[in-house]
Design goal:
3-stranded antiparallel beta sheet; 4 helices; alpha+beta; about 140 residues
């Protein structure tokens, strides 16, 4: 039996996206949009002297799955290096594509397992992870 696509935990995450404000002068910024559904996520970051994300701001205009994914990303992005964010992005992409059996090593991503058979939803789920990796790479290059 398949789990429902929108369960209570996904809807809770979608309703509690943290850092829903833009940074005043971000070091890095990236906007990603899903051509399938029109979901859009903008992520801005500051990078500390240690090369890790020190602050994050976001604008999330996405479906519940995209919002839930953005919530999970933002809840654990501060303190991560560019390499860690790129690794999480790549692992999420591989998991959604069926190229790995287990969810990425990122807290809570297993909650998105009901979306695995719904490939049309995958781009929205990836948006926040793609945007934060790009913004962090940009910010680290300053």
């Amino acid at each position: 039996m398949n789990a429902p696509l929108y369960n209570t935990e996904i809807l809770r995450l979608a309703a509690s996206v943290p850092f829903q404000q833009r940074l005043e002068v971000p070091m890095g910024s990236a906007e990603k949009r899903s051509p399938i559904c029109g979901s859009r996520v903008t992520v801005e970051v500051d990078i500390g002297g240690d090369g890790r994300v020190s602050a994050i701001g976001m604008v999330v205009r996405a479906c519940a799955l995209g919002q839930a994914s953005a919530s999970l990303m933002a809840s654990h992005a501060v303190g991560r290096s560019v390499a860690e964010l790129e690794e999480a992005r790549d692992a999420l992409t591989a998991w959604l594509a069926g190229e790995r059996e287990t969810p990425p090593d990122w807290p809570g991503l297993d909650l998105l397992a009901p979306a695995l058979p719904h490939s049309a939803r995958h781009p929205s789920i990836r948006l926040a992870f793609e945007a934060v990796a790009e913004a962090a790479r940009q910010g680290a290059g300053r």
